Amino acid sequence: MTQVNLNDVAKYLSTYIEEYRLAYDRLTLDAPHGAGYPERKSISTYLDDAPFECLLGTDGWVIVDSAGVPRNENWHIAGGPAMMIDYEPTAVPKEIRQLLIDEGIWGESIGIYRIVSPAKLPIDIWTGSFPVPLERSSFECAGKPLLVKRYDLPIMGILARLTFGVMSVIDPQLPPEEEPFWMTRKIQKLGYTTADRRHRTFFKYLEIGRHLDLAAWDPRSAWARVGVDLRSDYASDLAGGTISFVGRSIPALGQEEVTGPTEDILTSLNVAIDGLQGLLNDQDVEREDEFHQFLLDNPILLDVYGEVESKPQFRYPSEDSPIGKTHVEPDFLISYPGRTYRLIEIERPGKRIDTAHGETRAELTQAAFQIGEWRDFIANHPSQLQDQFPGLVSGNYRTTIVIGRDHLLRDGRSVERYLSLARQQLAVDEVITYDGLLDLARNAYARLSALIV
């Protein structure tokens, strides 16, 4: 087997970036020239000109873009999203513990998921130090600076150093070498830090693959990979919507005629939108379980292509709940290709979310507390979830609260701005009203309709 060299990597990535950008442009052009999807250039490192790296090991590779912008500059202290490697007893310094205590968030969910190593890690892993590469070279790939390095390290050794040991403790579920080319793992917008906070990094994009044989890096195959990756990247970018474009029989978006499955989806989505609107208009229907059942019967409203599961139970080991529960359960869990997830808590549409003075009401903070319980369980009991939801314990999930109606906000407050404020306060990825849920579904309907030619 002929292995790829540094020049081959640069040639392939140059072609891939050009093809990805062309496909993205076709996807976001208005109909009839394209599919008319909203622009989201944050979905991929390949849409900007920031420098990136490709690290080659002895049995795999990693593409790294560290140009990500976290939610706040102190993300490694609180807020994240991040994974923190630690020991028992904790290596968190006293001053940081005191700071969190003073802020009233010590022991609470702070967006940082603690991973405890059972043994002391080598110093080069804890500090993220790499040996001198066997070879290295710089390139320009479609205007994007690329640095390629080859190390005499296995892929797990590279990942352990990039994450300060997190990925030497939890299984990143890498694809086996027998998988088809470009079956990769992606991590986006996630930080890693040591418990002492001395070593940290925030990744905008991290992609992990196994194939080093030259055939996998043939530029002539780049266009085919782009069609799959672009849909997957939109599916993973859940902050702005709930549409997943991976899977089924839909071809590369914005390029080919789409019939059959998409038309069936449109029919189902249209019926579900009308049904939810009617349910919201019915003053006699107000119980949360009635809306839960309707969404269970019409999961397409939550996501067009993701697999929706109702009330999966995360069961605590004996007497291990911090507040005495036997289990916690999201109202819905959506699984996406690439082992990414969305956890959803729904409340009644009649619940108000703001007080006269502008603070979030207890109904909303209680929902956020439940999400904190889920995060705590995922961080502290990865073995309970790894088989059923691989990738969940690696932080590859987002959280959503659906609550209230737009018109219930007091004094004509801006819905969009208030919900953005609530998201920041509650450390929840998405807070939407039932009207917002309908808007997302209608937007999905309009975008999918543009694919029917």
Task: Give structural notes.
- The longest helix has 23 residues, at about 5-30.
- The chain folds into two domains: about 5-235, no CATH class; about 260-450, no CATH class.
- It has helices at about 5-30, 95-100, 125, 155-160, 165-170, 220-235, 260-280, 290-295, 360-380, 415-425, 435-450, and strands at about 50-55, 60-65, 80-85, 110-115, 135-140, 145-150, 185-195, 200-210, 305-310, 315, 325-330, 330-335, 340-345, 395-400, 430.
- α1 (about 5-30) crosses α6 (about 220-235) and α7 (about 260-280) packs antiparallel against α11 (about 435-450).
- Residues about 240-260 have low confidence and may be disordered.
- α2 links the parallel β3 and β4 (about 110-115).
- The chain has about 450 residues and is α/β, with parallel strands linked by helices.
How would you describe this structure in keywords?
453 residues; five-stranded mixed sheet; alpha/beta; 11 helices; eight-stranded mixed sheet; single chain
Q: How does the major sheet shape up?
A: 8 strands, mixed
Unreliable spans: 238-262
- What integer value in Å does the Rg equal? 23 Å
Strand line-up across the major sheet: 4-3-7-8-2-1-6-5
Cα end-to-end separation: 44 Å
Give a short overview.
This protein has 453 residues and is an alpha/beta fold. It has helices spanning 6-28, 94-102, 123-126, 155-162, 166-169, 222-236, 261-281, 288-297, 362-380, 415-426, 434-449, and strands at residues 52-56, 61-65, 82-86, 112-116, 135-141, 144-150, 185-194, 200-209, 307-310, 314-315, 327-328, 332-336, 340-346, 397-402, 430-432.
